Amino acid sequence: GAVVSQHPSWVICKSGTSVKIECRSLDFQATTMFWYRQFPKQSLMLMATSNEGSKATYEQGVEKDKFLINHASLTLSTLTVTSAHPEDSSFYICSARGLRAAYNEQFFGPGTRLTVL
Amino acid sequence: GQQLNQSPQSMFIQEGEDVSMNCTSSSIFNTWLWYKQEPGEGPVLLIALYKAGELTSNGRLTAQFGITRKDSFLNISASIPSDVGIYFCAGFNSGNTPLVFGKGTRLSVIA
């Protein structure tokens, strides 16, 4: 299947600092990228949807000024957690959707474990 | 938000047994996807279904897109220990609409 990479795979930071997570589609062009967070033993919770060159659409309850999303190209999206606090600690997963063999498919990155001290 | 009804929530089976799980929705989807997630990793796409009635296999996995476009099932034959994980169904319609997920089926395989 298609490969979506995320970097870093884990990060530990102090409260108040900002953290940037990169998501890349390695072998296909992603028309749309999605950002999720996941708490232990729960399903994925959609945070925002972004299309290349457009502003991200955030889900209700997700602060757009806290979770900055940039989708600069068809293969790269970044999520920046600004002024991180312990309650932002979570597993963040990006996902990329694109056309392959005329069908839309959606692939997930391996996730980034964020721990805020 | 909207969520698919996925069952069962969890399964404990003996190695070698077959497994079946399903998802239903109150609304129609044009695409159904099945993912497997292991601890500390992102979901991995197993099977994608695009046409009502479509039956697709991937090794020991078989999935079907219901004729009404409101349901799908996933079967795993002759389970092995590495099948352990959480299986999610997901649906979407077109363009950039987000996936709608089921709550997942947690599969445990007893050797």
Assembly of the depicted chains: heterodimer
User: What percentage of amino acids of chain A are in beta strands?
Assistant: over 45%
Could you spell the SSE succession of chain A in H and E letters?
EEEEEEEEEEE
Question: What is the straight-line distance between the termini of chain B?
Answer: 38 Å
What features would you describe in this structure?
The complex is a heterodimer of chains A (117) and B (111). Chain A has 117 residues and is mostly beta strands. Chain A is built from no helices and eleven strands. In chain A, strands 2, 4, 5, 6, 9, 10 and 11 form a seven-stranded mixed beta sheet that branches. The mean pLDDT of chain A is 91. In chain B, 0% of the residues lie in helices and 52% in strands. Chain B has strands at residues 5-7, 10-14, 19-24, 31-37, 44-49, 55-58, 61-65, 71-76, 85-92, 100-101, 105-110. In chain B, strands 2, 4, 5, 9, 10 and 11 form a six-stranded mixed beta sheet that branches. Chain B has a five-stranded antiparallel beta sheet with strand order 1-3-8-7-6, with no helix packed on it. In chain B, a hairpin with a 2-residue loop joins strand 6 and strand 7. Chain B is globular, with a radius of gyration of 13 Å. Chain B starts with a strand and ends with a strand. Classes of the chains: A mainly beta (117), B mainly beta (111). Chain A binds chain B through residues 1, 4, 6, 31-32, 34, 43-44, 46, 49, 51, 59, 91, 93, 95, 97, 103-111, 113, and chain B through 1, 3, 31, 33, 35, 40-45, 48, 50, 88, 90, 92, 94-96, 98-99, 101-104.
